[in-house]
Design goal:
The structure holds 2 protein chains of 2 kinds.
Chain A lengths: L2 E12 L2 E12 L3 E5 L6 H9 L6 E6 L2 E2 L5 H6 L2 E3 L12 H13 L13 H13 L15 H13 L5 E5 L7 H18 L2 E5 L3 H7 L2 E6 L2 E6 L1 H6 L1 H8 L3
Parallel strand pairs in A: 3-8, 3-9, 6-7, 7-8
Antiparallel strand pairs in A: 1-2, 1-4, 4-5, 9-10
Chain B lengths: L2 H10 L12 H20 L8 H27 L6 H18 L4 H23 L4 H21 L1 H4 L12 E2 L2 E2 L4 H23 L1 H11 L1 H6 L4 H27 L9 H14 L5 H20 L3 H15 L3 H12 L1
Antiparallel strand pairs in B: 1-2
The chains are: A alpha/beta, B mainly alpha.
C-alpha cells in the first residue's frame, strides 16, 4: 500500500496552548481513515495543518512523498489534498452548478479563462454533470445553493470537493447537524466514492458508530496528542481509548 | 431531466424559484434593447432643439460619472471589495491626463492609453497591499490611500497647481484634428461609457467573473478550492481603477481644469453612494446611479446650498425602499414579465 498523506511530529501551539502536539500518522491510498477524539482534542487544528490552513509550529506534512509544509492552501489543492468544512461552506448566492463548476475550472486551470458562454466549455460541463449525478444533486443544478436544505448543502460541500479531482479528501464532520436519513445517504455516498473512484478519505466525525462502521483505520486524539492508532477492532479494545473517550459516552 | 422539468418540479414543491437559469434570452434581449435605446437617446440628444451647450456639458459630465460609478459598482458588486477611495483613481486620471495634455500630447486617445498604463502600474502597486485585506480593513485602507493621493496634489503643487488646481489644459485633439469639447467629444464620452459597460458585462460572464463572485461569497472556501484570491482581487482592483482613471482623463479634457476636490474622500463617498443607489447587483445600475446623482447634485445645489442633506436622505430612502437599487428595480420588473 502506498501512503498518500503523512504527518510527522506535527505540532501547533497557540500562545502556549498545545492544540496539537507531536502528531504522526499516515493515510494509506484508498482507505477511509478517521480521526476521533472529544471536543478540544485538536482534530480541527490538525485538519487545518493538513490542508494548508495553518502553518505548523513544528513537524512536517508530506503528500505522496512530497513535503509541503508551510505552503498555502492553493498548493495543497494542486497536489490533490482537498478539504470540506465543518460549518457548511458553499457559495450561497451562486447556483449549485456554478458551485461545482468553480472547483472544476480551478482544477483545470481555467480561472482566468475569458470564455463568455461558460456552459459551452464541454470538459467543465461534463465533469460538473457527472459530479452532480454522483452526489444526487443533478435535479437541483440550477437552484441557488443558499436555498438547498441542510442535508443537500452538506452533499454539495462534498460535490465542490470532488470538482477538484482529489487524491485525498479531508472531511471535517460531514454529518454535523444532518438528519438520520441524510446521514445514511452521505455514508453510502462516501463508501461509493471510495469504491468507484478509489478516493482516499480522512474523516473527522463525532458519530462514533459511523466511524467504526466505515473506517479502515482510526487515529484517536486526546488533548492534542495521538493516544491510539489502529484498526476499528483494535481501537475498540484499547484501554486508554475506552478510558478517555469511548468509556465516557 | 430537462431545464424546464427542473423548474416546474421546483415550483411544484413550492420552493422559491431563484434559479440561475431564470433569465431567459428574451429578458436579456429586452434589457440590452432598453440600454441601447437609452444610449442612442443620449447620443443624439445634443442634436435636438431641446438641447443647449449647458445641457450638453451637464449630460457629458453625468456620463463621466456613470463610468466612474459603474467601475466602483462593479468592484463592489462582483468581488465584494468596498472601496472608499475610488475617487483617488478618478483624480489620478484627471491630473495625469491634464499633465499629459499640457506637456506631452493633446491627443485624447494617446492620453487615455498612457493614463491606462500609468494607472495599471500604480493600482497594481497599491493593490499588492490592499488585496491582502477584505471587508472593513480594505475599506479603511482605501480611504487612507485616497487621502495620500489627495495630499500628493499639494506636495507636488509645482506641477499640480496645489490648491488652485490644474488650469489651462488645452483643448483635446483626436488623431490630429481638434475635436474640442463640443458634440464630437460628447460622442467620445458616449463611446467610452458604452465600451466600459460592454467590458464589464463580458467580464462578469466569464469564468474569471465567477471567481470574483466566489471570493465575494466565501473567500476562505475560494482559497481551499485553489482560487488564487489575491491575484483575482488584484485583477479586478486594477481593472476598475483604470476605468475610473479613464473617467478622470475625459473629465479633465472636457472641463479644461481640475481641482483637488475631485479626489477628496467626500467625492469617493458620493461615488459609492451613487453606485449603491444604482444597485451593485447589476452592471448598468451603478452607472445609472452615478449619472443620476451627478445630475441631481448639479441641479439641486444650484438652488439649495445643503446638497449633502438631500443626498443623505435620498440614500436612506433608497436603502429602505429599494435595497437592490435602481438596477434591482429593473431586474425585478424583468423577472415578472
Amino acid at each position: 500500500m502506498t501512503t498518500v498523506l503523512r504527518a510527522s511530529g506535527l505540532s501547533k501551539h497557540f500562545h502556549g496552548l498545545r492544540a496539537v502536539s507531536n502528531v504522526s500518522f499516515s493515510v494509506e491510498a484508498g482507505s477511509i481513515h478517521s480521526v476521533i477524539g472529544s471536543n478540544g482534542a485538536g482534530k480541527t487544528t490538525l485538519f487545518n495543518l493538513l490542508s494548508g490552513g495553518l502553518v505548523p509550529t513544528a513537524g512536517a506534512v508530506e503528500v505522496s512523498g512530497k513535503s509541503i509544509t508551510n505552503r498555502p492552501p492553493e498548493y495543497f489543492v494542486a497536489l490533490g489534498v482537498v478539504r470540506t468544512f465543518q460549518i457548511t461552506s458553499i457559495f450561497s448566492e451562486l447556483s449549485v452548478w456554478e458551485n461545482v463548476a468553480l472547483a472544476v475550472r480551478s482544477h483545470l486551470g481555467r480561472n482566468y479563462s475569458l470564455r463568455v458562454k461558460k456552459r459551452s466549455d464541454r470538459q467543465v460541463s461534463e465533469s460538473v454533470s457527472e459530479i452532480l449525478r454522483s452526489v444526487n444533486l443533478a435535479s437541483r443544478s440550477s437552484v441557488v445553493a443558499g436555498s438547498l436544505s441542510h442535508g443537500e448543502r452538506r452533499v454539495l460541500e462534498l460535490g465542490i470537493g470532488l470538482g477538484l479531482d482529489p487524491t485525498i479528501m479531508l472531511l471535517d464532520e460531514p454529518m454535523a447537524g444532518v438528519s438520520a436519513h441524510d446521514r445514511h445517504v452521505l455514508r453510502d455516498l462516501i463508501l461509493n466514492l471510495r469504491k468507484e473512484s478509489g478516493l482516499t478519505v480522512l474523516l473527522v466525525e463525532h458519530d462514533v458508530e459511523l466511524v467504526f462502521d466505515i473506517s479502515d483505520r482510526i487515529t484517536v486524539m486526546h488533548q492534542g496528542s495521538v493516544i491510539a492508532d489502529g484498526s476499528p477492532a483494535a481501537i475498540q479494545q484499547n484501554e486508554a481509548v475506552r478510558a478517555s473517550y469511548l468509556g465516557a459516552r | 431531466m430537462s431545464k424546464k422539468q427542473t423548474v416546474v418540479k421546483d415550483r411544484a414543491e413550492g420552493r422559491v424559484e431563484r434559479s440561475a437559469k431564470a433569465t431567459p434570452n428574451l429578458k436579456r434581449k429586452l434589457s440590452v434593447g432598453l440600454i441601447a435605446l437609452g444610449v442612442l437617446t443620449l447620443a443624439v440628444f445634443p442634436l435636438t432643439a431641446a438641447s443647449n451647450p449647458y445641457y450638453e456639458a451637464l449630460f457629458g459630465k453625468a456620463m463621466i460619472w456613470g463610468i466612474l460609478a459603474g467601475s466602483l459598482g462593479f468592484l463592489v458588486g462582483q468581488s465584494g471589495l468596498v472601496s472608499f477611495g475610488h475617487a483617488a483613481w478618478y483624480g489620478f486620471g484627471a491630473y495625469a491626463g491634464g499633465l499629459i495634455n499640457i506637456y506631452i500630447t493633446s491627443d485624447i486617445l494617446a492620453s487615455l492609453m498612457l493614463v491606462a498604463v500609468l494607472t495599471t502600474f500604480a493600482s497594481v502597486v497599491c493593490g499588492l497591499v490592499l488585496t491582502r485585506l477584505s471587508g472593513i480593513s480594505f475599506a479603511i485602507l482605501t480611504l487612507a490611500l485616497g487621502q495620500v493621493v489627495y495630499s500628493a496634489v499639494f506636495v507636488f503643487s509645482r506641477f499640480t497647481g496645489g490648491e488652485d488646481g490644474l488650469n489651462g489644459v488645452p483643448l483635446p485633439t483626436l488623431l490630429g484634428v481638434e475635436i474640442g469639447v463640443g458634440y464630437g467629444f460628447y460622442l467620445l464620452i458616449v463611446g467610452v461609457l458604452v465600451l466600459t459597460l460592454i467590458i464589464l458585462y463580458v467580464l462578469a460572464a466569464t469564468p474569471m467573473g465567477s471567481t470574483w463572485k466566489a471570493i465575494r461569497e466565501n473567500e476562505l472556501r475560494s482559497r481551499f478550492i485553489g482560487i488564487r484570491v489575491y491575484m483575482e482581487k488584484l485583477v479586478i482592483y486594477a481593472l476598475t481603477s483604470v476605468l475610473a482613471s479613464m473617467a478622470g482623463v475625459l473629465y479633465v479634457a472636457f472641463n479644461g481644469a481640475v481641482s483637488p476636490e475631485l479626489l477628496q474622500w467626500q467625492q469617493s463617498g458620493e461615488v459609492l453612494v451613487a453606485a449603491i443607489t444604482g444597485g451593485t447587483g447589476t452592471i448598468v445600475g451603478p452607472a445609472l446611479g452615478g449619472a443620476a446623482v451627478y445630475l441631481l447634485h448639479q441641479t439641486i445645489s444650484a438652488s439649495f446650498r445643503d446638497w449633502p442633506i438631500v443626498l443623505g436622505v435620498g440614500f436612506i430612502l433608497v436603502i429602505i425602499l429599494l435595497p437592490q437599487g435602481i438596477g434591482g428595480l429593473m431586474s425585478r420588473r424583468e423577472r415578472k414579465s
